[in-house]
UniProtKB/TrEMBL annotation:
Pfam families: PK_Tyr_Ser-Thr (PF07714), SH2 (PF00017)
Name assigned to this protein: Tyrosine-protein kinase
Localization, UniProt: Cytoplasm
Family statement drawn from the similarity comment of this UniProt entry: Belongs to the protein kinase superfamily. Tyr protein kinase family.
Residue numbers binding ATP: 134
Domain SH2: start-end pairs: 1-83
UniProt source species: Nothobranchius furzeri
EC number: 2.7.10.2
Catalysis performed (reactions): L-tyrosyl-[protein] + ATP = O-phospho-L-tyrosyl-[protein] + ADP + H(+)
Length: 355
């Protein structure tokens, strides 16, 4: 707490910061400077909403801050200016020094093309280039993403969706290349067997594998590899997206809502994520590719999937899937992560299949 007090110096009425609670980890505390003192308000998380006084409820911290900047209601004074978060400042500095901070006035937003877990995605144009814009409104999420974005700036590969930069404006805008053909799942579902042959399917499988091999070489774990997170470019190249939200190979438990059907058994049980759990997801993704975008484990509930897979159940081979590709899926689905191949091995096998 004293740290928050020392940070709100020089004392200025309405200067505030939001910090994580020390006593209640995961909760936030709003600290407000007033008459030379710092007052602390615990932010209570209830039914997916935030509140300080159990009367006024907000969907996210930004809404709450905006509200208390307009009227003080139940706090000592209206909020005037935020004390910048240390980490954010350094991330922001690093991004601007390396030329990744873009200019909001040069961005034109078009229609919404997607809805992610953290914000909406829009089509846009930046200095004449067609782009996709992901807008993250919630301040705290935006701050953690800013950290993640600095990771993305260091990654460049033909099979990863390219980050062009970020804009800090009412939250965070993440600007990436526009992938005109949408996500791989929809792409395959809407075209089907009559349009796409198995050579093209192998191409997509190889594209994703190469993107993942690159992430693996950087010791990064994707954690949410699935056809919905692979995008298809104008010239029909598949690229892995949303990898900037990856955690560096971590043993940290993360109670995010896990996509059960794509998640390796050890990740579901012990929340252990590694390149080898990404390999499991890649096996599911291969199944999605060779069924032309079907939902994995058709007709099974999530509970059934968890139990059955733990007992050793694996999906059947998709209709007319090359036998070698199905045996690759099975290798990806080895119960023991150590027995699963790495992405470079998978790539070699796919290249043999193509030749």
């Amino acid at each position: 707490v004293c740290k928050a007090v020392s940070k709100l110096q020089p004392a200025e009425d309405g200067l505030f910061l939001v910090r994580e609670s020390i006593r209640h980890p995961g909760d936030y505390v709003l600290c407000v400077s007033f008459s030379g003192e710092v007052i602390h308000y615990r932010v209570i998380y209830q039914n997916n909403k935030l509140t300080i006084n159990l009367k006024q409820y907000f969907y996210n911290l930004i809404d709450m801050i905006e509200f208390y900047s307009r009227c003080k209601e139940s706090i000592v004074t209206t909020l005037t200016k935020p004390k910048k978060k240390q980490g954010t400042k350094s991330a922001e500095l690093e991004l601007s020094k390396t030329g990744w901070l873009l200019d909001i006035t040069k961005l034109t937003l078009g229609e919404q093309i997607g809805e992610g877990e953290f914000g909406a995605v829009y089509r846009g144009e930046y200095m004449g280039q067609k782009v996709a814009v992901k807008i993250i409104k919630c301040d705290v999420t935006a701050q953690s993403f800013l950290q993640e974005t600095t990771v993305m700036t260091k990654l460049q590969h033909k099979n990863l969706v390219r980050l062009l930069g970020v804009i800090l404006h009412k939250g965070l805008h993440i600007i990436t290349e526009l992938m005109t053909k949408g996500n791989l799942g929809n792409f395959l579902r809407t075209r089907g067997r009559s349009v796409i042959n198995s050579v093209q399917l192998l191409h997509f499988a190889l594209n994703v594998c190469e993107g993942m091999e690159y992430l693996e070489s950087k010791k990064l774990v994707h954690r949410d590899l699935a056809a919905r997170n692979v995008l298809v470019s104008d010239d029909s190249v598949a690229k892995v997206s949303d990898f900037g939200l990856t955690k560096v190979d971590s043993k940290e438990p993360d109670k995010a809502k896990l996509p059960v059907k794509w998640t390796a058994p050890e990740s579901l049980k012990k929340e252990k994520f590694s390149t080898k759990s990404d390999v499991w997801s890649y096996g599911i993704l291969l199944w999605e590719i060779f069924t032309y975008g079907r939902q994995p484990y058709p007709k099974m509930s999530l509970k059934e999937v968890k139990e059955k897979v733990e007992e050793g159940y694996r999906m059947e081979s998709p209709e007319s899937c090359p036998p070698n590709v199905y045996s690759l899926m099975r290798l990806c689905w080895e119960q023991d992560p150590r027995r699963r191949p790495g992405f470079s091995k998978l790539r070699e096998k796919l290249e043999q299949e193509m030749s």
